[in-house]
Design a protein that fits this description.
about 60 residues, alpha+beta, 3 helices, about 15% strand
């Protein structure tokens, strides 16, 4: 994870070319994220999200 760009949900949605609300549907289905502490904001690594989308679409 170190050395990679951490993005928030709005940034990931923008880079994927999807709506912000649709991204939250994806996240609800198990999209990987990182979080500092239990109440911290969720951050994403674009490559991890893209890889997860590819694998989950093949199921």
């Amino acid at each position: 994870m170190f050395g990679t760009e951490l993005l928030n949900a709005r940034q990931v949605a923008s880079k994927l070319g999807i709506s912000y609300t649709y991204f939250f549907k994806i996240r609800k289905n198990g999209c990987p994220y990182h979080q500092l502490g239990n109440q911290g904001r969720k951050y994403y690594v674009l490559k991890e999200v893209q890889d997860w989308l590819l694998v989950s679409s093949q199921r």
